[in-house]
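Let's practice the habit of predicting before peeking. Look at the sequence and jot down your guess about where helices and strands might fall. Then scroll down.
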Amino acid sequence: MIKVIDYQAAQPFRRFTPSRPTTIPRSPLRLSLATIRIRIPSGATINRVELIATVGVHGVTGTSQILFRIFRDGREIFNTQVGIESDSESEVNYVETFQAIDFNVGQGTHVYQVTAQNLTSGTEAAVVGPVSFSGLATTHKG
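Done guessing? Here is the structure:
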């Protein structure tokens, strides 16, 4: 039987707002997009935390390679990369959604954070929303 042990969500940007872009910094700097805290109680040794992030981005110049990363307690547990184009003859607005699963997390309260950074010099991309980040912690009891 699967039991929900915690659920948390953050939505710092609720809608697409191109008039208020936040530039994604060039690596090694990174932009913190959202943070949540998930509590794993004692005895929930067989568990998983399902994490889902959605980020609206806009290509400003060139084709940016954006690295999205998820951290647990400051340690990277997941990453993915996407190309964001800025050519006016193609799409310049994107909504990227990705999922990570963190297995058998130790008991206690854990801080999960999703970030973005631009890997490509001479390009620019920005977060324009929406941004959401959620975590669902479950345990399996046999």
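How did you do? The chain is about 0% helix and 70% strand.
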